[in-house]
Design brief:
CATH topology of the largest domain: Phenylalanyl-tRNA Synthetase, Chain B, domain 3
Helix content: 25-40%
Distance between the termini: 92 Å
Strand content: 25-35%
CATH architecture of the largest domain: 3-Layer(bba) Sandwich
CATH class of the largest domain: Alpha Beta
Oligomer: single chain
Largest sheet: 7 strands, mixed
Radius of gyration: 40 Å
Number of helices: 20
Number of strands: 31
Shape: elongated
Amino acid sequence: MKVPLEWLKDYVAIRLKPETLADRLTMAGLEVTGIAMVNGQAVFDIEITPNRADCLSIIGIAREVAAMTGQRIKLPQRQATSDKRQARTRPTLRTPHSALRIRIEDRKGCRRYIGRLLAGVTIGPSPSWMQRRLLACGIRPINNVVDITNYVLLESGQPLHAFDFDRLAQGVILVRRAKPKEAMTTLDGVARTLSPDVLVIADAARAVAVAGVMGGVGSEVTPRTTAVLLESAWFDPVIVRRTSRALGLASESSYRFERGVDQVGVETASARAASLICRLAGAAEQACRDVGAKPLVKPAIVVDASLASRWLGLPLSPAQIRSSLARLGCRVSSSESSPLLRVVPPSFRRDLIHDVDCFEELARLIGYERIPATLPTAIMPASRDAQSPLYRNLQSIRCLGASLGLMETVTWSLVSEMELSRCGWTAGEALRVTNPLSQDYAFVRPSMIMGLLRAIHRNLSQGAQGVRIFELGSVVQAGTVAHERASLGIALAGAWSRDWRTKETCDFFRLKGLVDALIQRLCGQPATCRAADVSWADPAEAARVFLKSRAVGAIGRLSRQAASAWDLDDAVWLAELDVTSLLQAQRALESAVAPSPFPPVKRDLSLVVDNAIACDQVASTIREVGGAMAQRVELIDRYTGRQLPPNTYSLTFSIEYRDPARTLTADEADDVHHRIGQALVERFAAHLR
C-alpha cells in the first residue's frame, strides 16, 4: 500500500525523517519495502499483513504512528451535508427522494448498507490537491464524485460506490444473489455472466454492480449526472473473495472487503464522502437510509499483567499496560488492587480477540529490539513414568530398528493416486482428502510401502550403493468407518555390505533375519512365515508373518512391474508389520537368570522332506516333542540338489539338550533325540539321514 507522507501529516504530527519513520514502522510489524519521491514528496510502500485490515488506509497508518510516537490522532471533521437555501435553487429529482428504497435480501452477504441521496451535483474535475494525492497512491483521477469515493477509500479503508440515481429503475436498491446466468457489464467494459453464488446490487430491473468488487455500466456517474446515490456497506469477506476469484476481477474495494472492514466505519466513511461531495460538487443531501444490523459491541478481553510480563520476558505494571493499550484506541478499566485489566478493543481492530493478541501489541509498542533475550526455562520430567506407555513402546521399536543397522526415515503420510496404483491399491481402498493441497497428496496412505519406495528411489538415484531403512508411522484403512493404526515398514535394496571387497546384495533371507530378530527381541517368541499373495509383490514371492496363529504383517519382494514404475533397477525387499499386534504380544520385562551350570548335550538332526512342508513346521515339531529338554533348536543347513529325490529338500538342525537340575547322560539325550526323529517320520514322512 502506498502512503504519501504529506497526506499522513494531516492526521498526526510527524517530526521524524522518512527513513527513521520507515524503520520504526517496519520494526512495529508494518514493513516498509521502499520509499519513492513523487513530486518532491516521500511516498512509503508498506506491506500490510492479512490480519491488519485496519492499516489499509492512511488513517490506519496514522493511528500506528501516533501510538508509536505518543502523538494524538487528528481525525477529519464532518461538515454539514445539506443546505435548505441552496437546495431550493437546484434541479428537482426525476425520482422523488421519498421513493428511495433499500432492501437487503441476503443478510449473510450484507450485514449493513447505508445509502445517501445527494442532489444538485455538478460533475467536474476534482481539486488539484486531491488529484495529486490520488496519483501518488497510483489511482487515476476521473471526476470529482468518483475521485471523492476513491479518496475516502484510501483515507478510511472503507470502499464506497456512487450510482447515478436517475438511472436506477424506480429508485430501488436490492442487495441479493444473482439470478442464474444473469448478465451485466462491469465498469472495465467486460460483459459477464453471473452465477447464483455472486452477491449483486440491483435496482428494480437488473443488476447494477457486483457487491464489494465493481460497479456496472449503465448506472455509473457521467458528466450529465445531477443526483448521486452514495453506497457504503459491509459485505461478507468470504463471499467477496469467492466472487473476485470466480470472475477473475480484483479491485481496491475487493482487496479491503476480503480482509474485513469496520462496521462502525461504514457510517463514518459515508458521512465523510457526503460532506466532501457537498463541498466540492455543490450537492445537498436529500435522504439517508441505514439498513441492516447495527455494529455489535466487542466483548472485553481480560488481560493479566503478571501473565503479560511472564510471556514477554520483562516486567510490566498494570499502569504501563493500560497506557500502551489506550494509545491503540482500546478502552481499559481495572481496579487498583487487581492485576487484571478489562480491555475493550476498538471496532476497527478485528484482530484483537484473546489476551495473547494484546501481549503482541504490547511487544510492538515497546519494541521487539528492547525485549531482553533470555533462554526459556521449564521443568523437564526426568522419570520414565512421565512418558506414556505407547511412547516408550514406539521408542523401543525405533531403538531396535537402529540396533539392527537400519536407518529411520520419515515420509509424507499423503500419497497420490498414481503411487497407490503402482503398489497395487485402488483409489477406493484409500481415504481421500477432502481439500488436498495438490493431487500428489490426495489420499491418506493405507500402507508404509509408498513412502519407503519414494525414499529408496531418491537415495538410489543420488548414487547410494545400498539402502536399509525403516519407518514407524500411522496408516489409515478406508471403509465404512476409517481405521487408523500404527505400522512399521522395512525396506532393503542394493548392496548389503559396505565393504568394497565383497559384493553381497540384499535378499529375502537378510530381510527375514531382520524381521525375526526384531520380533524375537520385542515379543520374546519366534515368528513364522507362510507363503501368501500381497498386492505389491509377484505371486510366490511374498509371505505373511505370523506370531503363533495371528498374522502380524507381510514380507516379500516388490513386484517387477511396480519396480519398473518406480524406476528401480535393483531388487527391493519389503516388510510391513502391524505395530498394535506386536505390542499386544510384547513380552514383559524379565529379571536376569543365571545360566545353567550343567553342560548341554549337542546333537545334529538331518532329514529330507517334501517341498510342501515348511521348515517352520519341522522346527515346531522338534520343540514340541523335545519339550523343556530341547532348549535350543537352530537350522544350520538347507540343501536342494540332484542327489535328492524330486520335489524334496534336506534340512539339518542343531539341537542342544539340557536339564536345569542335573547333567544329562548321553543315553537320555539319545532317547529324546530318537523320539523326535520318529515323530518327524510319522508326521511328515521324513527320511532321516
